[in-house]
TrEMBL record:
This is CehA/McbA family metallohydrolase. Keywords: Hydrolase. InterPro entries: Pol/histidinol_Pase-like. NCBIfam families: CehA_McbA_metalo. The keyword Hydrolase applies. It comes from Nonomuraea rhodomycinica. One of its GO terms (molecular function) is hydrolase activity.
């Protein structure tokens, strides 16, 4: 069946990790991320080779020598999965991180042919000649048993070292996330497990009562279970031939479900290119091993017409996936994608949509995002824009940087769809700029729009080595307060009502005179309300209480209280954060943000409304410069929608709802 794991494996075998997708920037990044991880300046290497702005990269990506990009980005470093053969006038030199092996099975890896020669060089690998241009580079798949000849045979002995074997058995008493490493950082996995690395380069896998073949040497074993747990670590040293049982259980930091709160990841891909096509069984192991209450596996395209996992969506739409239980719900949903207007996810579908993307390949920007949003909402889905903004934005910045030129997946149409009531939420917690998204979010709710804070990691289970994409689902979560049993419908309704907070790990609780996020209070002018925020989590360094006018109180972690005298309609949110921490996989550190408690029915600040109107003005030249339309009518449809949103915001000014 087209779209099956076997089909995806055939694409992988034929095309490599891009699965034959058109070479656009993020496809090129997946290709190079098979070798590079965090800390390597991939995009700088791209810029140096292209010599242009990022908005030109789609058109010029075909000019890019990605093998050379890998070499340049590494800057001479040697990775565990990428040995280098340096070809110089003085001779050839193999550089490699030596990896332990337990038997005679050859190690599969990749060899970077790195030429410093002024002329072409031919290197023969297993009888196949590879021509490396002057000063160029080439990546070649090899094993430790390969024959490599560059003028003379190359000794590949540095690739591996033979270690005596032992076995460890891992038990926690319930499914968890495990990491087993030897002294040099090499990861060890159960047989058949995907060799995944998270954003901090930690090897990991999921399960309980697992057996691993390991070297008989000092090992570090760590276990955790998602953000509601701490981690436990022990060093062991099994003897050769010994089977050593390690019993290790992570400590629970908080129990959200006991308080009626359930954590979800609304943006996870099962398959979306990568180095190992993923099965639903892998998603099940990850969800239960992370104790992730709600998992939304989204079908979506990459750069063309193919919609990955569409067949699974057709089979399971409207139904819980088989491993769901009273505390874990898994569904298939959709990521609708338009790289000019923004991407959004849909959770809780009751039927199949007819639209999945626009603006890719030969497909023009046929319609505004409002059309698929209306269809998805009609199918019962709760919707939210994902990975919205990629450049930092301060509270005082105009929206110009957020609406910068280029097709870069930014959520440009969020200001339109929010005004027209077409979108339910915004992934303030995402893999891109949390700070910029939080600023935009607060501007939107300050301008009279009602949106929930949500979270979507954009984790991809078919990718094992690419920063946050290869981190486990649920490394960021939206917690929603559910009134009653957990179901897909009850969770979606809680998000729709704004009963949420989103977090990289900390628990964040907000109370305003007994009201929680999503509630609307109606105190009389001059009344005083008491605001309380609480946090749990070792990564929290600061805590803020904010209204539409900005920060009204801040302090350290734990508990923060303030009083507010009501003068006009406003909102209250709590925000918490901290620097880099082992519990946070976001490069920006720890962060949590609540949805608002609304004070008054019509919250709208003049400054925020005018900020949104400025955003709408910026959309017109953006569409003229970067939009692709098959007809004047298609372009007009976008303009008409923007005019409708403009009328909504202007009405808020005319009706006196916007406060100076």
């Amino acid at each position: 069946m087209e779209g099956s794991v076997d089909d995806y494996r055939r694409l992988l075998d034929r095309h490599g990790v891009t699965w034959g997708e058109k070479l656009i920037p993020y496809v090129g990044e997946v290709r190079t991320s098979a070798y590079l991880m965090n800390g390597h300046d991939y995009w700088s290497a791209c810029f140096r080779q292209l010599g242009g702005a990022r908005r030109d990269m789609d058109a010029r990506m075909g000019e890019l020598d990605l093998d050379r990009v890998v070499r340049d980005a590494l800057g001479g470093d040697v990775l565990d999965n990428l040995a280098a053969l340096r070809l110089t006038p003085e001779g050839c030199r193999l550089e490699a991180r030596t990896l332990a092996v337990l038997d005679e099975t050859p190690l599969s890896t990749t060899l970077l042919l790195d030429s410093g020669m002024p002329e072409e060089v031919t290197v023969t690998v297993d009888g196949v000649a590879h021509v490396v241009p002057p000063g160029g580079a080439k990546l070649v798949a090899i094993t430790s048993a390969s024959t490599v000849v560059a003028g003379e045979p190359i000794d590949l002995g540095a690739l591996t070292r033979r270690a005596r074997a032992a076995r460890v058995r891992l038990r926690a008493g319930f499914p968890c996330r495990w990491s087993v490493t030897s002294g040099d950082g090499q990861g060890w996995y159960p047989r058949g497990a995907v060799r995944a690395l998270d954003a901090r380069l930690r090897p990991y896998f999921h399960g309980d009562d697992l057996e691993l073949d390991v070297p008989a040497e000092r090992l570090t074993v760590s276990v955790t279970r998602g953000m509601e747990y701490g981690s436990a670590t022990v060093d062991v040293e099994p003897a050769p031939g010994e089977e050593l049982t390690v019993e290790l259980t992570p400590e629970r930091l908080y129990d959200a479900a006991a308080r009626g709160w359930y954590g979800g990841d609304l943006h996870v891909h099962l398959n979306w290119m990568g180095d190992e096509p993923a099965t639903p069984e892998r998603a099940a192991a990850a969800q239960i091993g992370e104790d992730l209450h709600v998992l939304n596996l989204v079908a979506g395209n990459v750069a063309g017409e193919r919609v990955y996992d569409r067949e699974l969506l057709e089979e399971w739409v409207g139904r819980d996936l088989p491993w769901s239980d009273e505390s874990h719900v898994a569904r298939f949903g959709v990521e609708y994608r338009n790289d000019l207007l923004g991407h959004f996810s849909a959770f809780g579908l009751t039927g199949m949509p007819t639209r999945f993307h626009s603006g890719f390949g030969d497909s023009p920007d046929t319609h505004p995002n409002s059309a698929p949003l209306a269809e998805l909402r009609g199918l019962g889905a709760v919707t939210g824009y994902g990975h919205p903004f990629h450049t930092d934005l301060s509270d005082t910045d105009p929206p110009d940087r957020a609406v910068a030129a280029g097709r870069n997946c930014s959520a440009r149409e969020i200001v339109v769809d929010a005004a027209l009531g077409l979108i339910d939420s915004l992934d303030v917690l995402n893999h891109s700029s949390i700070q910029a998204t939080a600023v935009v979010y607060r501007r939107l709710i300050g301008a009279g729009n009602r949106l929930a804070v949500t979270a979507g990691t954009d984790a991809v289970l078919s990718i094992s080595r690419r920063g946050t994409a290869s981190s486990p689902p649920g490394w960021e979560r939206v917690y929603a307060w559910v009134d009653g049993p957990l179901t897909a419908a009850s969770f979606a309704e809680a998000v729709r009502r704004g009963r949420t907070f989103a977090t990289t790990g900390p628990w964040l609780e907000l109370d305003v005179d007994g009201h929680r996020p999503g509630d609307t209070m109606r105190p009389a002018e001059g009344d005083t309300v008491t605001i309380t925020a609480r946090t749990v989590g070792p990564e929290v360094e600061w805590l803020q209480l904010r209204t539409a006018d900005g920060v009204i109180a801040e302090g350290g972690p734990g508990l923060l209280t303030a009083e507010l005298t009501v003068r006009e309609p406003t909102y209250v949110v709590a925000v918490a954060g901290g620097g880099p921490h082992p519990r946070s996989m976001h490069p920006g550190g720890a962060y949590a943000h609540t949805s608002p408690v609304y004070i008054g029915d019509h919250v709208a600040r003049r400054a925020d409304v005018e900020w949104c109107l400025r955003w709408l003005d910026l959309l017109e030249p953006l569409l003229d410069a970067d939009g692709t339309f098959a007809s004047a009518a298609q372009r007009a449809a976008h303009r008409e929608l923007h005019d409708q949103a403009r009328q909504v915001y202007r009405a808020r000014l005319r009706e006196g709802r916007a406060i100076a």
